[in-house]
Amino acid sequence: MSVSSAHQPRIAVVGGGIGGLAAAAFLGRVGLRTTVFEQAPELGEVGAGLVASPNLVRLLRRLGAMGRLLERAVPLDVGWEFRRWEDGRVLSAENLSESCERRYGERTYTTHRADLLSVVQSAVPDGSVRLGMRCLRVEIGDDRAVLTFADGSRVAADVVIGADGVHSSVRSAVIGRSPAAFSGLCAFRALVPAERAPAFALRRAQTLWIGPDHHLVHYPISAGKSVNLVAFAPAGPEAIESWSATATTADFLAEFEGWDPRLRELIRASGTPGRWALLDRPPLERWSRGPVTLLGDAAHPMFPFFAQGAAQSVEDAAVLARCLAADLADPSRALRRYESIRGERTARIQAVSHQRAHINHLADGPEQQARDASLRGSDPLVANGWIYGYDAELAESEASR
Question: What does pTM read for this prediction?
Answer without folding.
Answer: 0.95
